[in-house]
Each structure stands twice: as C-alpha cells, then as structure tokens.
Amino acid sequence: MHQELSGILSAERVLTRTVDLAAYATDASLYRITPRAVVRPRDADEVRLLLAYARREHIPLTFRAAGTSLSGQALGSGIIVDCSWHWRTLEILDGGRRVRVGPGVIAGHVNRRLAPCGFKLGPDPASIDACMIGGVIANNSSGMCCGIEKNAYRTLESLMFLLPSGTQVDSASPGAGERFRELEPRIWAGISELRDRLRANGALVERIRKKYRLKNTMGYSLNAFMDFDDPLDVFWHLLVGSEGTLAFLLEAVFATIPDLPHKSTGLLFFGDVRAACAAIAPLRESGAAALELMDRSALRSVDGKPGVPDFVSTLPETASALLVEHQAGTAEVLSGMGQRLDATLALLPVLRRTPVTRDPGQQMALWAVRKGIIPSVGALRRRGTTLVTEDVVFPVESLADGVLGLQELFRKHRYDDSVIFGHAKDGNLHFLLAQGTNDPREVDQFSAFLDDLAGLVVGRHDGALKAEHGTGRNMAPFLEQEWGTDAYLIMRQLKALVDPEGILNPGVILNDDPRVHIANLKTMPEVDEEADRCIECGFCEPKCPSRDLTVTPRQRILILREGARLRISGREADARALEEQSRYELLDTCATDGLCATACPVSIDTGRLVKQLRGVRHGSAGEAIADWLAGGFAITAALTRGALRIGWAQAALFGRGTLERLTRAAAPLGLPVWLPDVPHAAGMLPATSPDGAGAVYFPSCITRIFGPEPGQPSLAETVVKVAARAGVPVWIPPDIKELCCGMPFSSKGYKKAHTRSANAAIERLWSWSGGGRLPVVLDTSPCTWSLKTCRDVLSADNRNRFDALRILDGVEFARDVVLPGLAIRRKLRAVALHPVCSLVKMGLGAALREVAAACAEEVFIPVTSGCCGFAGDRGFLHPELTESATRSQAEEIKARTFDGHFSSSRTCEIGMTRATGRSWFSFWTLLDEVSR
Asked: By three-state DSSP, how is residue 31 classified?
C-alpha cells in the first residue's frame, strides 16, 4: 500500500510504520482502531486521487483534523487522511464580519486573529484551543454560550467540498446550484426526492422541528431538508454534522458574531438540583449568556482548588451550583442586565453566592471552578481506566429529573466517582466516568449503563443522546431508537445516495453492529505514573513544537502505551523494535519545553517523561561523564568556548559551507550541525562590585559561553550597564564561572549531574546573596525556570536556603526594579516579541509585554507564537525542529516591519533569527537602546 499511495502523494507524506499507525490509532474517545496507513494530502487534487484509489481498492478513508473527537469518529481501519498538517487557509473578510478558513485551522487561532476586529466564531466548544475547523463543522460544534442559534450549522455561509466521486463544489460560486445539478444529477435528484418525501410526512416534519429546538448532533442534520429548498443548499447543510461520511471539506466561510467585551460573572449555590434547575428560565430571561450547572459531585471534585470558595466543603450533599455570566457590547447595557439579575436573584432560593464581578481575573477564577472539573476527575481516576465524557440533552423543563435520573444510573451501575456538569441554559449535560476496559465485566457494565442511559434520555424524556459531540461509533446503535424508523431510513438512503461504495468513514453514524459502541475499546496499560493520567484528549498538541515534524505529546504517550501492549501480549521483540523505530520521533525531536502541561487538562509534562527516557538510554558511563562535567563546569565552559573558536577558525579556513556539509554528514552520530548562526565564543565577564549592589547577577552559562556579534557588547555588559543606569547596580561574583543551573544536564536526562549543579548553585547563591538579603537575577528565562523548579533535587539544607532565596527572572527584575528608575529617552515605533516557553510557564509573558510597552509604541506577539523548538541544543542537533516549530510565527513576523525583535533567551533568539531572517536580541538590548 505504501508504494501505491506514494504514487499519489510524496513518499514522506505516506505513513505506514508501526510507530506512525500507533500514533493515529486513537482519538479523544474510548476507542482504538489501528489504520493501515496515514496520509497527509496538500491540495484538492491529491484528495481527489485518494478518493479514486479508495473506490478502486475498496479501502475506507477517514478524514481527521485535530483528533479531539469524543465519540470515535476520527478513527478508521483503512486510510486516515490527516488534515492537520496543511489546509490552514485563514482569511479575514469584511473587517472580521466573515472569515474564510481551511479544515486544518485551530478554532482558537481564528478567534485570536479576529479579536482585533471585535468578532469571533459562533461555536465555542471547550476544546476550542485544540480542535480544528474541519471537526467543528463535521460535528456541528456549539459550546457554552452559543446554544443552537450560533452553532456551526447556523453561522456557516458557504462550503467548498469534494464528493466521493471527486466532484468539487463551492456553494458560494455563481451558478453553483446548476453546476451541482449538471455534474451530479443523481445526487441532485436524490436530494430533491428525499426533501419532498420528508416534507410530505407530517409526523416526521413535526418530529424534526421538535428535535432541533434542542441541541442535537445525533445522525444527519435533517433540519436542512426543512430549512432550504435548493438541493445544493440542502446538501451542503447536511454536511454539517456529517462526521466525514459524505464529503471532504476543503474550505468554509463563517459569518462571525460580535465578541462582546463587557462581562459579569457570578457563582450561585442552591440547596438541591431542582432549585438550581428551576432558576434556569428566570436567569435566562435576565439575559444570561452562560448558565453552567455543577452537581454536588462536580463541586466536590474541585473543593480546595484555587478559586473555589471555602464554604463549598460545608454545602449539603444535595447542593448544586450555577455559574452565571452576562455579556454586553457596552458597560451601560451590562449594568441594565445587572439590575435585572439582582431582581431575579431576589426571588430565587439561593443558598450561597459569590459576588457578581466584572474583574477579568476574578472571572477567570470563577470559570476555573467549572473548567477544573475535568482535570480533577481525570487526574484522580483509577490507573488503567479511561475518562469517558458523555453529552446528552434534556428539555429544560425536564432537566432536574434528568440530573436525578443520571445520578440514579451512576449508583445502579457503580460509577461512584462520576460527576455531572453542563450548559444548563440549553438543557445540555455532560458527565464524566472512569471506565475500565481490561475486564469483560467492565465492558458489560458500560454496555448496560448505555442501554439504561438511552432509556432515560430518549425513552423517558425524549431528549438527545448527543448534543455536541457527534454520533460517532458511540451512539450509532441508538440512532433509530432516538429518531424513529422514518427518519432513520432517510439517513441511510442519504448515505447510500452520496457514497454508494461506502468508502467515507464507514461505521460512523450508521452502523449495523448493535454492539459497535463496546467494540474496539482501548486498553490503558501503565507506562509511567504521570503519563498514565493522560486521557488522550489532544489539548496538548497545538503547544508542541514538533507537531508539524514528527509527533505530539499525546502521540508520544500513545507510542509508549503501544509498546506496553506489545509486552503484555508477550511480543518483547516487537516492543524493542518499536522503541528503536520511534527514537527520533519520541526522544530526539521533543523540545522538553513543558508547554504541553499548560494546555493539558491534567497538567502532564511529557517533556519530563522524555527526559527520564533519555536518562535510561545514557547508562552508567554516560551519567558518570555528565557528572564529571558538572563537577568541573568552569573547565566544561572553557572547553566549549575553545570548540567555538576552533570551529570559527575552520570555517574561515575551509569556508562555512564546507564545514556545514561536513557536520551535517556527522549529525547521525549526535554531533551538532555548524550553521552560519553559530555564535562566537564569549569573552570575559564585566567587573562589578558587591558594594551597594541591588542584586546578585547570575549570568547563565549560555551568556558565559556564547559571545555577541563582533563589535557588539555582551549581554552581561548590557545588563550591568542598564541596571547601573537605573540606580540598581548588580554584582557578578568572580567565581560564578564554576556554576550552572543544571538545565543542560536536566534536559538530556542526566539526573545526577543536574542534582550536583543545582545544589552547588543554591549553596553558593545563598552565600553571595547574604543569606537571601539580595535577590538573585538571571538573564536567561530557561535558566530561571530551571533554578526556580529545582527544589526536589536539593539536599535538606539547600531546600531551606532555596525557600529563603528570591530568584528573579531578568524580565520581572526589569519590570519591577529597573524600569521605575530608568529614564526612557525615546520610544521605538514597533517591536516584535517572542515570549519563550519558560517565561510563559512562569506567568511572566505579560511582564515582557509591559517592559516592551514602556519602550515602544506598539508591541507585537504573533497569534501563533509558541516554542521555537531550539531547546538549548536541539536547534544545533536537529535544526529541522526549529524550522518546523517557527514556520507559522515567522510568517506573521515577516509580513510586517519592526524596529526591533526581542526575547529573553539567547538560543531562542538564534532560532528566531534563523526563522525570520531578522536579528533578534535580548530585551535588555531594547532597554539599553531607549535609555541611552
């Protein structure tokens, strides 16, 4: 198959190795299906050829964007067509009132591009910063505030798509309807016939109208037959929510909605579920944009977490809560809503409440209560289980009975740790349960629960088994039960009409197997205490610098779990082969930057796991050498500077191009590639005095090894000069050359060397700072992060010293100490910033912006800003990682001109210089320039 597919796409975009297939064998659901191949087409012509191949060979295609689907619709046993690597069209239209997007664009990126225009997408799913437009349309996404009025179905203006036959249609092009009729007369006639037959069935018409008064993503969007007359308009609206079973989505145009800037948020607590649900209608009438319900179990799961009121632990066992948010275009309109809310609350039996706030920070804390439920439950679930997130709808008037019914089902089926929360304004509930799949009794438990769930939601309350997450495999067996035979037959006829060969995502939405919802359940073998908490949601992936080169954090864990499965089944040789095959993807191209943890619902730092795996590979000899280098770091630094001098001498003798070719040939041996941006060796540190010093200055080893461009002052010289200019001189201890924060050893998995370095640094800094009297300032953010997070490897005495030290990143020192005393003599027009990963993890991204804003009229940070992938030495060892990681943000920066480009890490500045073709410097250079 690889050879045949390589005749359609270039060979590097056809993946058939075990490691590749393991990385795509699951989505965010509880299913696992290994494909035969994964392909990454670039354009419509390649997709058309894939469709022809699939028809000819009778091999199914599954279109996959972000893989955040919760119902198993992004999996397939044939060919996975990965839309996440390309298909990233993003064009703002009509001043932001419309936007043209490709299926591979992350929805949250669209909103960040729209934000300066004052608009946003209507759908607002919880996965908005990870899911992609292809999935938003394919699942008819909605969310917390958009209801049914602003979902994908209601806000799409047009679609461009490819039919299974290869016919391409753009619904917005002039004469598109007639072209559709000419090119696909059978489909055109079939849609017309289905439309007329459906409309002639009065009972079905009424059924459709009733079903779509609620959120509903069960089956195909039959309301399209009611809402539109033209067969093309009917059809392209049927594609919304079709989960990749009818066509490939090439491009979409959305009508956007205003991004209302004024918000007020509060948290209300009620004595029981009925009291909370009875408050929904009056609160909705007060103008509430969001009403998020949390039952007592959900509240218990976040009790004691930041932002959760202290009194939550004292609430009765029957209590429930509503998070209420109002949104408006002006402060005056919001004030009017506030008055109506006050009048409404006076009539409601509110047990406790938080003050209604307009403060963004306090609002974020309140939303953290609601959004913290999934992380809390996911982190605490039993190892070896997967987290199941279900999604049902009850008529709002039946919502209390629905909640109580769900709680009764949890008790009946022994899901003791399950929680309920959701979008109460729409009657849309989500619930979480930890599901085991290793024991047949656990599978039977899940099957019996789903049967009873269908009876509760559909049989008793005539709700919907899926409101937002799509039918998938999860609810396919219950589709006819929910819709009835007439509607179900129309759905089957629609699929047969458009995809007669059944090549597009077979088994999703429509499936003849009554047990498909409990087939192909994924097992969760234990691989690592932290990684075992992974729920495979994919939220981490947009943060990963290697996502467009090799694999993502989720996929790294999937590969490790596949190895564990192989070992459990006795296939030790296959497991070892997988380890060797995946070394480049798993270990070499991981930047270990830890940004994945900032997006992960359960805060997994996959970089930490990779460091551990690297450490295992080093062996005792490697550890001993690293420990020796750490113990004599002054010599290590001197040797490195010497190597740089020799390298530059050879470059001068043989030519840079020759040296680069030679080192690229040696790269497989683990040697760095000599590129034109390799720095020169650093010189001596500037002389300083401890007398009158305002801080101890710890120049990073990068600063002490890498020198500036010829003729430029060193970073250490600049820091010393700017600090003195501001009246807060800094002192560099003369024997600082012996110290390292330990990061170079930690990132490579040398635990012993890292421990030695960190303890030596803390011990000496304690002495130099006068027992913590003076703050310690570092000039490189990754080193600050390394030092600030080293407590676990310290001795007992050094932990006490660490706790008393004030370790400051240069950015916060500049903002809080230097800037108040620094005279800004002129401002630059516009500057670009690259907030490095460690700065973001320390919560200092805003501080860098503040420093830059004091120095420039405009501060620009790319929408796609993220890890540059340089990662200390990765940029030298694997320059392709930096090239891939910086591509999008470099395009944004190169589209404009700036007076300067600044960051807070020398290696990241090298990476950004390489990516943009423009020189990047430390923000200290900016401070120096504007204060001279």
From this structure: strand
